[in-house]
Write a structure and sequence with these properties.
The complex is a heterodimer of chains A (about 475) and B (about 500). Chain A is an all-alpha fold and about 475 residues long. In chain A, about 75% of the residues lie in helices and about 0% in strands. Chain B is mostly helical and about 500 residues long. Chain B contains 20 helices and two strands. Classes of the chains: A mainly alpha (about 475), B mainly alpha (about 500).
């Protein structure tokens, strides 16, 4: 029993965190900062629990819940990303004061849902975990004080999200029809036999849709720009980092069910990948709002991740995992700058960055590193990630896909350079005051810069971890 | 032969260490920043000179090799080494870096960032020249390119933002072809290694070589200023600040030609054989086109920019001949043109700083106003024309002889291009440095004595290798000879 509880350690930590935050949300008046301290402390505890549970493995809850290196690695990624997001929630601008405990509470339940999700190996469990995280986000997105745009973003997110869920349920029913089981262990035995049938392939594709939505892959990308712009900056950061990692985890898990044999599926994925990359990058060029631009760049990056996944082999999956880690770090770095520069929690136009290198050289440097990393310029982690997924795609003989990917990377460089230009070259129309950032934020900046470079130059450790995780995924299920 | 001491890493990492130190210096300590840059450049230069002198020409092959496993699962090695082909180019980089830092001594605007970026760029350049692992080669290639954007956009002049953006996008579009090429070769070889030497022995399928060479030719060719992908180059040169123009035209463009040579020709010799007619035609068009367009320019930097296009065309033509003399000539030309262009930009940089113009019609009689700057410009211009006893003469001679032998028509056209370029260079010299003086600039100061030194080093190098070409050619031939065997 104790061993089984230990397997559930990261989730237990987050359940505890949710409980504490729930209790904190009950009193009407809050002492200033108390909730934040609790949230920060508990999220550190969450990271510690996820690290401690990294190597545990086994099956619990009637074989519906699988704990292995793959799931634990993603739990670690999720908890680290969650911790990073919490660090930039002080001061919590853009969210009304009385909702602060709820804000942290729903962040926690959302992450908890995703943790369940990466371990779930039974379709219904999977679906319920997904809904737990989705509903938390449906509440978080409209939780913004001030202007009118938030309601629209929230409604849009809700509707598209629910549609994706329905599509996914429909897909699950097809898979159930083909294999007579909701357990992934049964499905993986039967599905490769059936996968050449249109019904099974369509079923799987529709099931994937739920996660395409989370990852903002074409054609489920419509929410991204509005939600990124409409949600509070911290919530956007959360959606752009934590939420993506969970989506990739599940896309890989479900795609691996085919046993790497489905040409049918891989063609569809290639098309989605190419359209996502090209559409995201081309539309990003004309954006004026920084968060909107990053939303379109997210769509493009979803395409790059798909490129790793659609190879359906070990190298591809592990490079997609690596890319997810890379993407989480560099995207977080970019959004951290957004949160810090937008002191009142307002939306940030690219032009508002003018003179940033003078107002805060450190933030400007972090932004430049993050953008170069997103553009895939070595020696940053973004380059290494791109290199790995491109290598995986080339290994499967997708020469043209790699070429399109590289051309897209060049296009993306244009709009990233425009942001760098704004931060480094243009002077503000009216003199802007220097941005004062505290010592913890400074430390965070240095840390991000170092990590982005270190993982770019020395990818070996993370890559080995990803490879081992993927081996357990493919070998174990 | 593995090196006992990592000399090559020292050459490459000295600027990197310099850069890191600079990043931690306070913003107002301009003096310290300059000294750190100069000292790290000097360390690189001295180590390079040692390696140059210690390289065993009788034994040939790769020497001073360093090889460490980096990423096991993909077969990536940290693998450096020099042979007769890249040794001259490393020397070129060291000389241009050292003189470039010195030339920029008087810079006042955002000094810290400038030198940090410049050193970072040079780390990339060294890396490309010395890396024998395709992954690292590509990484260094991009590292050497992206600092160009801020360097030009912040410290540049004429249409700097446009120039910087155009240059960056062109060059990275080029690298967008290179990376698929590298991965393509990697998987087609079936060896699962990025080791250039092992891959070159893999005996790739002719079809693979055909496509591979195409990707490398146009991918690297953009940076080599291959016509019609050269348009970024004059614009970029004109916009860039002096030292960046020096490094950029002097060294960076050579990266492109070196990439075609080291990656394209080494890995896909049969591909070159197939593509050589197209390669030679594009090269010749570049030579003639650069010369004629140069004729019409009124901006000194544009003149140099177009003459660079023309001269880099010569490098390409030399490579396309696939003969020992032609390829050696091309490598020699890379070196000679690098030094010569650096000297040209360095001199123009001074003229521009003192007069704030680089328009030929506005200048005139500068030889009387600024005799020192004029001397160096004219010397470099003469070298560019191919006057005997200067380094470029031998290089151009080798390329022309072999070009004429292999491609008689194209060779003849190329020689006519040279005549035109001689014409326009002499015209520029005549209009800028002789003739009536523009009184507006009569009071402009000539170079300070200390600032003569960097130019003198460059001029000395041109003369040294002009008078003793064997010094260079013996080294180059050692490296080129085994390569040429691949085309038979």
């Amino acid at each position: 029993m104790a061993a089984k509880l230990y397997m559930f350690l990261p989730e237990t930590a987050y359940l505890l965190m949710a409980l504490v935050l729930f209790l904190l949300s009950l009193p009407k008046q809050q002492p200033k900062g108390r909730v934040y301290v609790w949230a920060l402390g508990l999220s550190i505890l969450g990271v510690a629990a996820a690290t401690a549970g990294l190597t545990s493995h086994g099956l619990i809850f009637f074989q519906a819940y699988r704990v292995d290196l793959y799931s634990q690695l993603f739990k670690l990624i999720l908890s680290v990303a969650m911790f990073l997001v919490v660090t930039i929630c002080w001061p919590l601008t853009g969210v009304e004061r009385r909702y602060k405990p709820e804000f942290f509470l729903f962040l926690t339940t959302c992450t908890l849902g995703m943790m369940f999700m990466v371990s779930a190996v039974e379709m219904m469990t999977l679906y319920l975990s997904l809904e737990l995280s989705s509903f938390s986000l449906y509440i978080l997105v409209p939780l913004r004080s001030g202007d009118n745009i938030d309601v629209e973003a929230g409604v849009k997110y809700l509707f598209i999200g629910i549609t994706a869920s329905c599509v996914m349920l429909f897909g699950i029913s097809y898979i159930y029809g083909a294999t007579h089981s909701t357990y992934l262990t049964d499905i993986i035995k039967k599905l490769p036999l059936w996968i050449h049938q249109p019904a099974a392939a369509i079923g799987l594709l529709l099931t994937l849709s739920g996660f395409f939505f989370k990852l903002a892959v074409f054609p489920f990308h419509f929410w991204a720009p509005d939600v990124y712009q409409g949600a509070a900056n911290q919530v956007t950061t959360y959606i752009a980092t934590v939420s993506k990692a969970a989506a990739v985890a599940l896309l890989i898990r479900l795609t691996s069910l085919t046993g790497g044999t489905s040409l049918y599926l891989s063609y569809v994925l290639i098309v989605l990948c190419v359209i996502s990359m090209s559409l995201g990058n081309l539309v990003a060029i004309v954006q004026k709002d920084l968060k909107r631009m990053l939303a379109y760049s997210t769509i493009a990056h979803a395409g790059y991740v798909l490129m790793g996944i659609l190879t359906m082999n070990e190298l591809g999956y592990s490079s997609a995992v690596f890319y997810t880690v890379a993407y989480m770090i560099m995207n977080f770095a970019a959004f951290m700058v957004v949160v810090r520069v937008a002191g009142q929690g307002q939306d940030l136009k690219i032009a508002d960055l003018a003179g940033l290198h003078r107002r805060s050289p450190l933030l400007a440097l972090t932004l430049m590193m993050a953008l170069f990393s997103l553009a895939g310029i070595p020696p940053t982690v973004g380059f290494t990630g791109k290199f790995l997924v491109f290598a995986a795609a080339m290994q499967q003989g997708h020469f043209w896909l790699v070429l399109v990917g590289m051309i897209n990377a060049t296009i993306s460089l244009y709009y990233y350079l425009m942001v760098i230009k704004a931060a480094y070259l243009t002077e503000p129309a009216e003199p802007a005051p220097a941005l004062v950032i505290g010592a913890p934020t400074r430390l965070l900046n240095y840390l991000l810069i170092v990590v982005m470079t270190y993982l770019g130059v020395f990818p070996q450790q993370v890559m080995t971890l990803a490879e081992n995780a993927v081996k357990q995924l493919i070998g174990g299920s | 032969m593995t090196a006992a001491f990592p000399y090559l890493s020292l050459i490459m990492l000295a600027p990197a260490v310099g850069m890191v130190i600079i990043l931690f210096l306070p913003h107002d300590s301009k003096r310290a920043v300059r000294w750190v840059s100069l000292i790290s450049a000097a360390v690189s230069l001295l180590t390079t000179l040692y390696v140059w002198q210690a390289y065993d020409r009788a034994a040939g092959g790769l020497q001073f090799v360093e090889r460490t496993l980096w990423v096991k699962s993909l077969g990536i090695y940290y693998y450096l080494g020099v042979d007769g082909i890249n040794l001259p180019l490393v020397l070129l980089t060291s000389i241009v870096l050292f003189t470039g830092v010195w030339t920029m001594w008087d810079l006042q605007h955002r000094v810290k960032e400038f030198f940090a970026l410049m050193l970072l760029m040079v780390v990339g350049v060294y890396g490309v020249f010395m890396a024998l692992d395709l992954f690292f080669l590509f990484v260094f290639y991009d590292v050497s390119l992206f600092p160009m954007y801020p360097l030009i956009a912040i410290w540049g002049s004429t249409r700097k933002e446009y120039g910087a953006l155009k240059l960056t996008l062109y060059l990275l579009a080029g690298s967008a072809l290179v990376l698929p090429g590298i991965l393509y070769i990697y998987f087609k070889s079936g060896l699962f290694t990025f080791d250039l030497v092992m891959l070159s022995k893999a005996g790739l399928d002719p079809d693979v070589q055909y496509l591979g060479f195409f990707l490398f030719l146009f991918g690297f060719g953009v940076l080599a200023g291959l016509w019609p992908f050269h348009t970024w180059s004059p614009v970029g040169h004109v916009a860039a600040p002096t030292a960046v123009s020096m490094i950029h035209a002097g060294v960076l463009m050579k990266l492109g030609a070196y990439g075609v040579l080291r990656v394209g020709m080494y890995l896909c010799p049969q591909g070159l054989v197939e593509w050589s007619p197209l390669f030679a035609i594009l090269a010749t068009v570049g030579i003639v086109y650069g010369a004629f367009v140069g004729l019409a320019q009124t901006d000194l930097k544009y003149v140099i920019g177009y003459s660079s296009v023309s001269h880099m065309g010569l490098v390409s033509l030399g490579l396309a001949t696939m003969t020992l003399g032609g390829v050696s000539g091309a490598v020699f030309q890379m070196f000679a043109h690098g030094i010569m262009t650096a000297l040209l930009f360095s001199s123009v940089g001074h003229i521009y700083d003192s007069t704030h113009t680089k328009m030929i019609p506005e200048l005139g009689g500068m030889a009387k106003v600024e005799p020192r700057a004029s001397f160096f410009f004219i010397l470099a211009a003469l070298a560019g024309i191919g006057v005997p006893c200067l380094a470029s003469f031998w290089a151009e001679l080798l390329v022309f002889i072999n070009g004429f032998k292999v491609y008689p028509v194209l060779g003849a056209l190329a020689i006519s291009g040279l005549v035109v370029s001689a014409l326009f260079m002499l015209r520029v010299v005549q209009k800028t440095f002789y003739g009536p003086k523009n009184e507006k600039y009569a009071e402009c100061a000539d170079m300070r004595l200390a600032m003569i030194w960097p130019r003198a080093i460059l001029a000395g190098t041109i003369l040294l290798f002009g008078l003793l070409p064997r010094l260079m050619l013996d080294t180059i031939n050692v490296g080129v000879a085994p390569l040429v065997e691949l085309f038979k």
